[in-house]
Amino acid sequence: MGNNRRTRRRAQDRPASGRHARVLTKGRLAVAAGTGLLAVSSVVWFQSGHQSAQAGPAVADADAKPASVSFTGGALVYRPDAAGTTIPDFSSAGYGGGGVALPRAAEKTRLDAQAKGDDTARIQAAVDRVAQLKAGADGTRGAVTLGPGTFRVRAGIALADGVVLRGSGTGPGGTLLRASGKPGSLITIGGGAAYTSTGKHIEIADARVPVGATKLSVADASSFTPGDRVVVQRPTTTAWIKAIGMDKIDGGEGWKPNSGILAVRTVTAVSANSLTFDAPLTTAIEKRYGGGTVWHYALEGQVTHAGVENLAADATAFTEDADYGRPDGGKNREAGAFASRLLTIGAARDVWATDVRLTRFGSGFYVDDNASRVTIERAADLDMAVPAKLAPPPAFMIGGQQVLVRDTTVTGDRVHAWTTQAYAAGPNVFTRGTATSPSGSGQIDAGPHMRWGSGTLYDQLTIVSSDGAFIAANAWDGGTGHGWQGANNVFWNTSSARYTVLAPPTADNWAFGITGKRTPGKHDGELPVPPRQGTIVSPGAPVQPASLYEEQLRERR
């Protein structure tokens, strides 16, 4: 974590943990704009290539077509742009690298509800006992089953490698975790360790590796073999910060160079000095902006094959904490409504949460940037408790990669329903979800939250509120200098009252079949030059297939 912290404006927007929990200051944008209209079997809005010469467009010139995808003859047809950018394949998101059924861990111990007293210690003791058992072929060691009834728990139950915490249902007659004590994450899977290199950083040899690529060349591939897990690092450099206009947001110091995007990938093939990976890259790697490297990694304390299943939780008691609604001062980065969660997933791989129901949490689920191949499905975050003076907290937040969030329900006023953190590496997927404002007019939005979250698919999502929106824009000096919130994200058959889909310099954002009123970005009037529009295909009318994720997964199989 960096030391350049600020307390100015909505300090609660800071990431909760991980290597991007640093505060980035304000910077200045320098892009130009232009829009064009093109008809290709449906209405398509796309941005011309004109923008500042310093930044360089994602497509080659004003007449070039943006990257796109269509459904022809029962299959997806991808059209790259002139620079080789391709709509990413999101099918590797989720447990096991996508399309893999969750394991069913055998019950190894069972706890019954007590009439009174705190249950935290005995649940943790049961988890620790099962953690000592030998893992089976599916990687699980066993399940701790909680019987019907109420269990009173404090934040901090830590699941171990191969251990599943399983309830007896989410409704009447099921299992309820009733929060107590200070707000925090009731359950954690994996800690806060960072990726560390275990060998040399091998330079990427290509002048440009485009978005959507699964293959690249390196200076020397002799240390890599199929099956290796590696990091493809694309650092945030001064040259790139200037190119996207984030060096002087509104007269401040701007974004600072840092480790950037760390894409964790598995090597599937090695040929000469070329490496092929299991999942695409979601931000271009370019020599002119500092290039990138590939390296083997270690992740201390990584937890695998662990999960939370079939239970409900209530966090009403958390709302009584004195700092629950603190709006400023930085104290609620790890406290208050933002820390009020059922589950935080940290240093973990191939883990899950399924069939869970939350009530009165301030947040809900947080997947940190050191987590990969995660599935969260059939999850409800209901009646979210958001104090009036607090900025909207997230219901489902992703900082990691290859994360699948599917079949979810959110209710609350003033929330970020589905969103990503800084430099999220993707590919990530939010699919089949509904977020509803109980008042009918609460602020509910979805999209990348801050600082270049890339390669996320927002698929078949509906926001029910007169102030509902899907947003991928330039947040400028909002929050902690969030700037360009995200790049190379795809909105597919989404519906809300309005939407804002803008394209940052060097990249794009796409929307297919998006429904709602197209509106400018909140900070567009503060920018020196208007931003570019993203690529919008068939606005107001759904496209085929109904789900891009499901079709990509079907075709991969």
The helical percent reads under 10%
Radius of gyration: 22 Å
Count of individual beta strands? 41
Mean pLDDT: 88
| Gap between N and C termini | 40 Å
Low-pLDDT parts are 1-62
Find the structural class using helix and strand composition: mainly beta
Strand content bin: 35-45%
Largest sheet: 17 strands, mixed
Give the overall shape.
Answer: globular
- Helix run count: 4
What do these coordinates show?
- It is a single chain.
- With 557 residues, the chain is mainly β.
- It is 6% helix and 39% strand.
- It is globular.
- The strands form six sheets. It has a 17-stranded mixed β-sheet that branches.
- The protein starts with 34 loop residues before the first strand and ends with a helix.
- The chain has four helices and 41 strands.
Considering the chains and any ligands shown, give keywords for the structure.
557 residues, mainly beta, 17-stranded mixed beta sheet, globular
In short, what is this structure?
With 557 residues, the protein is mainly β.
Note the topology.
Elements: E1 35-39, E2 43-47, E3 68-72, E4 75-79, E5 107-111, H1 120-131, E6 142-146, E7 149-153, E8 157-159, E9 163-166, E10 175-179, E11 185-189, E12 196-197, E13 202-203, E14 208-209, E15 215-217, E16 229-236, H2 238-243, E17 258-271, E18 274-277, E19 285-286, E20 293-298, E21 303-304, E22 307-314, H3 336-339, E23 341-345, E24 348-359, E25 365-367, E26 371-382, E27 394-398, E28 401-411, E29 415-420, E30 428-436, E31 444-448, E32 453-454, E33 456-464, E34 468-472, E35 486-487, E36 490-492, E37 495-503, E38 510-512, E39 515-518, E40 532-533, E41 535-537, H4 548-556
Parallel strand pairs: 5-6, 6-9, 7-10, 8-11, 9-22, 10-22, 11-23, 21-24, 22-24, 23-25, 24-26, 25-27, 26-28, 27-29, 28-30, 29-31, 30-33, 31-34, 32-35, 33-36, 34-37, 36-38, 37-39, 38-41
Antiparallel strand pairs: 1-2, 2-41, 3-4, 12-20, 13-20, 14-19, 15-18, 16-17, 16-20, 17-18, 37-40
